[in-house]
Amino acid sequence: MTNEQGVIPLREKDLTINVGDNRNLKVEEFMTNFISNVFENKNALFLYCKYVLLFYGKELLNENNVESLNFEIIKGGITNILVKVEDNIHQNKYLIRLYGPKTSEIINREREKLISNILCDKNISKKIYVFFPNGRIEEFKDGYALSREDIKNKDFQKEIAENLRILHDIQLDDTIYKKLQALQNIQGNRSSFLWSTLWKYFNTLKEERQKKYSFNPKAYILKLIDFDMLESIITEIQELCCKKNSPVVLCHCDLLSSNIIKTEGSSISFIDFEYSCPMERAYDIANHFNEYAGFNCEWDLTPNRSEEYHFIKHYLKTDDEQLINQLIDEIQPFYVCSHIVWGLWALLQGLHSVIDFDFINYGMTRLTAAFSVKFRSKLEKN
C-alpha cells in the first residue's frame, strides 16, 4: 500500500533475498524501492549522500568530515535526483546525481562516461569527479538555468547557436568512435546513433506493453497505442530524415532550457550530457527548437521561419541566405523525429519513475504532436 506521497514504504521483507531469487533483479528492486523512499524522506537521502562521499569521494573531503557539509535538493531534473553539497569551511561545492530507476536501460552509462571525459578535457562540460554504481559526483556550477522565455531571446539564441556549433565541431577519432559504436552495438562507418536509439525505445515499450499492462495501471495507456501504425510512421520519418544527408556530429541530444546555464559575468554553458552521442546535426537543432514549447507543450511557441533563420545564421556564422535556408530545410523532418523519440522515452519513464512528473501524459502529448497538422506539414515541404 502506498503512503500519501504515492510511494511504497520499505519493509524488512522488501530487503530479503530468498533461495532461488534472481539476485540481480532483487538488487535492482531494492534500488527502485530505495529511490522511492528517498523522495519520501529527505534525511535518508542526505544520509545516503554522506555515504557516497565517504565511500567514493574521499579525496573531496577534509579528513573524512561529512558533518560540516550542507545538503540541498536541486529541483528541475525529471529523471535524476540532484543534491548540492556545500562545504562552507573550505568553500567547496559539489553535485551528487542519483540516477532514476530503470534509467540505465535508456541511457548507456559507459557511453556517458566516455563522452563526459572527452567534453571535460575540452572544457565544454562540468568536471566529473567520480562515477559510482547509481550516480556520480560532479562539479557544481553557480548560476541559473535559462527559462523557456530566455531561449527565445535573440541574444541568448545567438550564444546557444554558437556554443552548439562548437560542440558539433568536436572531432571524434576513429578509435573513440568505434568504442562508442561497440557500446551501443551499432554497425557501419561512423553511423548515427539516432535510429538505433529510437528503435530501442520503440521495441522496449512494445515489450513492456505485452508484459505489464495487465497489472500496472500506468501501463494501461499503452493499450491505446497502435504499434503497427507507429512503426510505419517511424519508418517513414527515418526515410525522410535520411534523405537530408545531415552530417553526423557529436550532439547534446537534450538541449532544453534547464540544461543551459548562465553564470554571472560569463557566457552560457551546456550541462547534463547524459544523452550526448553522434547524431545528425539537424536532429540536435530541431530537438532544441521543440524545447521552446516547454514541458507544457505549447507548440505555438516553436520558432517560425524568421526565428529559425536568426539561429541558423549564427550557427553557420554566415550571411549566405542559400546556406542558411538549406539548413533550415534540412532540419524540418527532424522536428517530428524529436517528438517520437521523447514521446517513447517519456512513456518508458512513466512506467517506472517515482519522480513527481506526469510522464505518461507528456509522452502521449509528444506522440500526438508528431501526427498534428502543424508538424506533419514540415514533412510535406520536403
UniProtKB/TrEMBL annotation:
InterPro entries recorded = Kinase-like_dom_sf (IPR011009)
Membrane-spanning segments: none
Please, one GO biological process term? Answer: phosphatidylethanolamine biosynthetic process
* EC class name: transferase
Q: Name one GO cellular component term.
A: cytoplasm
Sorted alphabetically, which CDD domains does this protein's record hold?
ETNK_euk
A Pfam family this chain is assigned to: Choline_kinase
List the PANTHER family: CHOLINE/ETHANOALAMINE KINASE, ETHANOLAMINE KINASE
| Similarity comment text for this entry | Belongs to the choline/ethanolamine kinase family.
What is the protein name stated in its UniProt record?
ethanolamine kinase
What species was this sequence derived from?
Plasmodium falciparum (isolate Dd2)
